[in-house]
Amino acid sequence: MRIRKSVRWVLFTLLLSPVVLVGSCMARARWWWAGAESAIATAVQATAEGRTDPDVEVRLETGTSTGATWEPRVDFRGSYRTTDADDEIRGTNLLDMLDPAAAVYIAHLAFASGHIYHVEVVREDGRWYVSFSPEEGK
After folding, report:
1. 120: left (phi over 0), alpha (psi -120 to 50) or beta
2. Which of 12, 49, 59, 133 has most Cβ atoms within 10 angstroms of its Cβ?
3. Are 117 and 109 in contact, with CB atoms under 8 Å apart?
4. 126 is in which domain, residue-wise?
Protein backbone atom coordinates (compact mmCIF):
# COMPACT_ATOMS: atom_id res chain seq x y z
CA MET A 1 0.00 0.00 0.00
CA ARG A 2 2.85 2.39 0.77
CA ILE A 3 4.45 1.81 -2.58
CA ARG A 4 1.27 2.67 -4.40
CA LYS A 5 0.95 6.00 -2.55
CA SER A 6 4.55 6.88 -3.37
CA VAL A 7 4.01 5.98 -7.02
CA ARG A 8 0.95 8.22 -7.10
CA TRP A 9 2.94 11.13 -5.68
CA VAL A 10 5.72 10.59 -8.18
CA LEU A 11 3.25 10.47 -11.07
CA PHE A 12 1.42 13.52 -9.74
CA THR A 13 4.71 15.40 -9.45
CA LEU A 14 5.79 14.39 -12.93
CA LEU A 15 2.49 15.52 -14.40
CA LEU A 16 2.44 18.78 -12.47
CA SER A 17 6.06 19.84 -13.06
CA PRO A 18 5.59 21.02 -16.69
CA VAL A 19 2.66 23.19 -15.59
CA VAL A 20 4.76 24.73 -12.83
CA LEU A 21 7.67 25.28 -15.23
CA VAL A 22 5.50 27.00 -17.85
CA GLY A 23 3.76 29.11 -15.19
CA SER A 24 7.03 30.25 -13.66
CA CYS A 25 8.48 31.10 -17.11
CA MET A 26 5.38 33.17 -17.92
CA ALA A 27 5.57 35.00 -14.58
CA ARG A 28 9.27 35.73 -15.07
CA ALA A 29 8.60 36.98 -18.61
CA ARG A 30 5.92 39.39 -17.35
CA TRP A 31 8.27 40.62 -14.61
CA TRP A 32 11.08 41.13 -17.14
CA TRP A 33 8.81 42.89 -19.67
CA ALA A 34 7.46 45.27 -16.98
CA GLY A 35 11.03 45.95 -15.83
CA ALA A 36 12.14 46.79 -19.38
CA GLU A 37 9.26 49.23 -19.84
CA SER A 38 10.01 50.80 -16.46
CA ALA A 39 13.68 51.14 -17.44
CA ILE A 40 12.62 52.98 -20.60
CA ALA A 41 10.42 55.38 -18.63
CA THR A 42 13.28 56.00 -16.18
CA ALA A 43 15.76 56.55 -19.03
CA VAL A 44 13.44 58.98 -20.82
CA GLN A 45 12.81 60.99 -17.66
CA ALA A 46 16.47 61.03 -16.58
CA THR A 47 17.59 62.14 -20.05
CA ALA A 48 14.96 64.89 -20.18
CA GLU A 49 16.16 66.15 -16.79
CA GLY A 50 19.85 65.87 -17.73
CA ARG A 51 20.70 63.40 -14.97
CA THR A 52 21.74 59.78 -14.65
CA ASP A 53 20.07 56.92 -12.80
CA PRO A 54 22.08 54.35 -10.81
CA ASP A 55 19.96 51.40 -12.01
CA VAL A 56 19.64 52.32 -15.70
CA GLU A 57 22.48 53.08 -18.07
CA VAL A 58 21.45 55.11 -21.13
CA ARG A 59 23.17 55.17 -24.51
CA LEU A 60 22.01 57.84 -26.95
CA GLU A 61 22.72 57.99 -30.64
CA THR A 62 21.64 61.45 -31.75
CA GLY A 63 23.09 62.31 -35.12
CA THR A 64 20.79 63.25 -37.93
CA SER A 65 18.12 61.47 -39.88
CA THR A 66 16.58 62.79 -43.12
CA GLY A 67 18.32 66.11 -42.62
CA ALA A 68 16.85 66.93 -39.18
CA THR A 69 18.90 67.21 -36.01
CA TRP A 70 17.63 65.07 -33.16
CA GLU A 71 17.89 66.29 -29.58
CA PRO A 72 16.70 63.57 -27.17
CA ARG A 73 16.87 65.85 -24.13
CA VAL A 74 14.28 68.12 -25.77
CA ASP A 75 12.21 65.35 -27.39
CA PHE A 76 12.00 63.37 -24.15
CA ARG A 77 10.26 66.24 -22.33
CA GLY A 78 7.10 65.52 -24.30
CA SER A 79 4.81 62.53 -24.08
CA TYR A 80 5.48 59.38 -26.06
CA ARG A 81 3.69 56.30 -27.31
CA THR A 82 5.32 52.86 -27.48
CA THR A 83 4.80 50.91 -30.72
CA ASP A 84 6.07 47.64 -32.19
CA ALA A 85 7.22 46.31 -28.79
CA ASP A 86 8.74 42.85 -28.98
CA ASP A 87 11.56 40.79 -27.53
CA GLU A 88 14.26 38.80 -29.27
CA ILE A 89 16.42 36.04 -27.88
CA ARG A 90 20.11 36.95 -27.78
CA GLY A 91 21.56 33.49 -27.25
CA THR A 92 21.26 30.15 -28.95
CA ASN A 93 21.34 27.64 -26.11
CA LEU A 94 18.29 26.16 -24.38
CA LEU A 95 18.67 28.25 -21.21
CA ASP A 96 18.70 31.47 -23.26
CA MET A 97 15.51 30.39 -24.97
CA LEU A 98 13.75 29.69 -21.67
CA ASP A 99 14.99 32.75 -19.78
CA PRO A 100 13.30 36.05 -20.70
CA ALA A 101 16.14 37.95 -19.02
CA ALA A 102 18.41 36.62 -21.78
CA ALA A 103 16.42 38.56 -24.36
CA VAL A 104 16.48 42.10 -25.71
CA TYR A 105 13.34 44.27 -25.57
CA ILE A 106 12.90 46.24 -28.79
CA ALA A 107 10.34 48.97 -29.48
CA HIS A 108 9.76 52.35 -31.09
CA LEU A 109 8.91 55.45 -29.09
CA ALA A 110 6.87 58.05 -30.96
CA PHE A 111 7.25 61.43 -29.25
CA ALA A 112 5.02 64.49 -29.43
CA SER A 113 7.79 66.25 -31.39
CA GLY A 114 7.17 63.84 -34.27
CA HIS A 115 10.48 62.06 -33.81
CA ILE A 116 10.44 58.29 -33.49
CA TYR A 117 13.22 56.58 -31.57
CA HIS A 118 14.26 52.95 -31.83
CA VAL A 119 14.93 51.60 -28.33
CA GLU A 120 16.64 48.41 -27.18
CA VAL A 121 16.75 47.26 -23.57
CA VAL A 122 18.77 44.48 -21.95
CA ARG A 123 19.39 43.47 -18.36
CA GLU A 124 22.85 42.34 -17.36
CA ASP A 125 24.43 41.91 -13.94
CA GLY A 126 21.37 43.38 -12.21
CA ARG A 127 21.38 46.57 -14.27
CA TRP A 128 19.22 47.79 -17.17
CA TYR A 129 20.91 49.09 -20.35
CA VAL A 130 18.74 51.27 -22.59
CA SER A 131 19.89 52.35 -26.08
CA PHE A 132 18.08 55.02 -28.10
CA SER A 133 18.66 55.86 -31.75
CA PRO A 134 16.67 57.76 -34.38
CA GLU A 135 14.30 55.47 -36.26
CA GLU A 136 15.59 54.99 -39.80
CA GLY A 137 13.79 57.00 -42.43
CA LYS A 138 11.93 59.18 -39.91
Report:
1. beta
2. 133
3. yes
4. 2-134
